[in-house]
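Before relying on records like the one below, remember that each one covers exactly one chain. Contacts with other chains, cofactors or solvent are not represented anywhere in the record.
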Amino acid sequence: MDKITWKSERRKLKDLKGFEGNPRKASEKEVEDLTRSIDRFDLADPLVINTDGEVIGGNFRLSILQGKGIEEGDSGNI
């Protein structure tokens, strides 16, 4: 098995696609808590995307950032 190579980069959030098969659903409290955390600490954990720009880690973070009108964010790309 080949070793995964990670790289960090800034991406326009509008170019990222949320994972449509994401089985997790956020409660209203979880959304409020994550929004408060992003407001206070910024994005402490980058979004994880595949080579096609699909978010495979951080779908809730992506939706909150987009809802706040943020245009770019850091992502870890595999």
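The first helix runs from residue 28 to 41.
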